[in-house]
From TrEMBL:
Its main location: nucleus. This is Zinc finger C2H2 LYAR-type domain-containing protein. Residues 31-57 form the Zinc finger C2H2 LYAR-type domain. One of its GO terms (cellular component) is nucleolus. PANTHER family: CELL GROWTH-REGULATING NUCLEOLAR PROTEIN, CELL GROWTH-REGULATING NUCLEOLAR PROTEIN LYAR. Signal peptide: none annotated. GO terms for biological process: negative regulation of transcription by RNA polymerase II; rRNA processing. GO terms for molecular function: DNA binding; zinc ion binding. Keywords: Metal-binding, Nucleus, Repeat, Zinc, Zinc-finger. It is found in: Nucleus.
Amino acid sequence: MVFFVCEDCNETLKRLKVAQHLCRCSCSAITCVDCGATFHDDSYLQHATCMSEAERYEGNLYKAPKKKTAQDAWAELVQAACADRRDAPPAAAKLLPRLQGFENIPRNQKKFCNWVKNSLNLRGGDAAAVDALWAYLA
């Protein structure tokens, strides 16, 4: 999870809350807490992952894991599908842009469907759209 600090009011923000804060605060820049990189405008959106605590404090002694976890691979697959949604079914294509900022998307179908309904505030007859989204991603 990436956290940012507002340069004007020094409020600490999660990545998903930065857009709301920018509307309210009109700050000129935000800075990543972990790596210290400063971002202007919407450039923070590309900063989805940052260095880990071990990487930060161990320096040259740090050894990165040899392969990614299943959750990281799934998150990358979902983000790639959000970026390239040309061949997605129409019902799924409407929901894909709303998934873009999330990193904690479940890999299990039942949990995924419940998570999408709750996180994207889908109510009523959107079960077919959620099923189409799962079929497209899986």
